[in-house]
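Duplicate of #3305? Posting structure anyway:
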């Protein structure tokens, strides 16, 4: 395998971001205060995990852009196919203008079951590749004519663009082919929660190797590792933030298998999890039906301790800080902290900053 050097490190907190509104919410206005807190802590980025209903990335990040001044703002992620590419590029450049160049556009694939329910085609690998090119060219002011697997678009063009570059395009990826596409065609990759630090290292190497093989500078492709953090919480809250959140990912057919395989874990607990009385026969994703607190008992029964101890950062703020440094040491360029709202991340941020100075 081609050996590719990792990207040079920078100040630790500038390489750490946070999810805004982690999980379900009916009050999107909370994102404004959370983003201000993230910026006050010195974090480098804040991200919206788009969820249809109250977490549309355009309105949310537009509001957050006006409440912040320096922190980078990203969508992680909007699914390819939900928006016409012209509208997607238009939203991206509007946010790029509103943030004065601080926006990052994250794209991902719809799960096949969701695509069927929405009456959409599941994006194949070529669609994922072509979408990056289409959106990037539109954001650069080009007229795009395209007829292929992503659709038939005779003539598309944006007008009145700001004098700013196109925002970085990052791809949410789990499997090896998606990691390769991120390295070959995107500006970065967002890795799924509940990967071990070693698994993040393997994914980072694959992305950078793919970039080098495509004739790109492997250091130009950013690797964002998403890490669930539960620092200094009660046992119940720690279970809700980490293990119950894990239920909502590993319960999904395909996602669960990909995650355990990447980590080198056994698949056996997946069958027990999906057969649990709360989840058995459930159509679709569990977090569309249950809150994390409603999944506490299922999490305690079915989620192996190994999955949260090695696939997340839980415990004291000092221990969580050490775990996050492991992910950076293994090859992540940046981290996206998930699960805990930003007002809970202060002690972790302090430990990260102190460790850098020691």
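Output from current build:
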């Amino acid at each position: 395998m081609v050996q590719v050097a990792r990207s040079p490190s920078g100040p630790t907190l500038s390489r750490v971001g946070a999810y805004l509104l982690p999980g379900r919410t009916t009050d999107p206005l909370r994102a404004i205060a959370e983003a201000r807190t993230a910026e006050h802590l010195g974090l480098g980025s804040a991200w919206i995990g788009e969820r249809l209903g109250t977490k549309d990335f355009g309105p949310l990040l537009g509001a957050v852009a006006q409440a912040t001044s320096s922190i980078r703002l990203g969508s992680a992620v909007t699914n390819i196919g939900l928006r016409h590419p012209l509208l997607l590029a238009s939203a991206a450049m509007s946010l790029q203008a509103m943030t004065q160049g601080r926006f990052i556009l994250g794209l991902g694939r719809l799960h096949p079951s969701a695509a069927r329910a929405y009456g959409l085609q599941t994006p194949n690998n070529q669609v994922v590749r072509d979408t990056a090119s289409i959106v990037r060219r539109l954001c650069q002011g080009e007229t795009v004519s395209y007829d292929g697997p992503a659709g038939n678009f005779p003539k598309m063009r944006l007008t009145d663009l700001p004098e700013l570059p196109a925002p970085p395009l990052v791809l949410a990826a789990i499997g090896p082919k998606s990691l390769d596409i991120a390295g070959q065609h995107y500006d970065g990759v967002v890795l799924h929660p509940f990967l071990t630090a070693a698994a993040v290292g393997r994914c980072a190497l694959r992305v950078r190797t793919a970039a080098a093989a495509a004739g790109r500078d492997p250091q130009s492709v950013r690797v964002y590792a998403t890490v669930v953090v539960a620092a200094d919480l009660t046992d119940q809250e720690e279970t809700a933030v980490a293990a119950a959140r894990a239920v909502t990912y590993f319960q999904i057919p395909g996602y669960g298998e990909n995650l355990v395989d990447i980590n080198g874990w056994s698949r056996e607990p997946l069958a027990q999890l999906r057969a649990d009385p709360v989840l058995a026969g459930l159509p679709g994703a569990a977090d569309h039906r249950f809150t994390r607190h409603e999944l506490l008992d299922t999490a305690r029964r079915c989620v192996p301790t190994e999955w949260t101890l090695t696939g997340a950062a839980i415990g004291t703020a000092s221990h969580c800080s050490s775990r996050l440094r492991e992910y950076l040491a293994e090859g992540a360029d940046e981290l996206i902290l998930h699960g805990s709202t930003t007002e809970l991340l202060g002690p972790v941020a302090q430990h990260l900053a102190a460790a850098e100075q020691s």
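Confirmed duplicate; merging threads. Residues 13-222+332-344 form a domain with the TIM Barrel fold (CATH 3.20.20.30). The radius of gyration is 20 Å.
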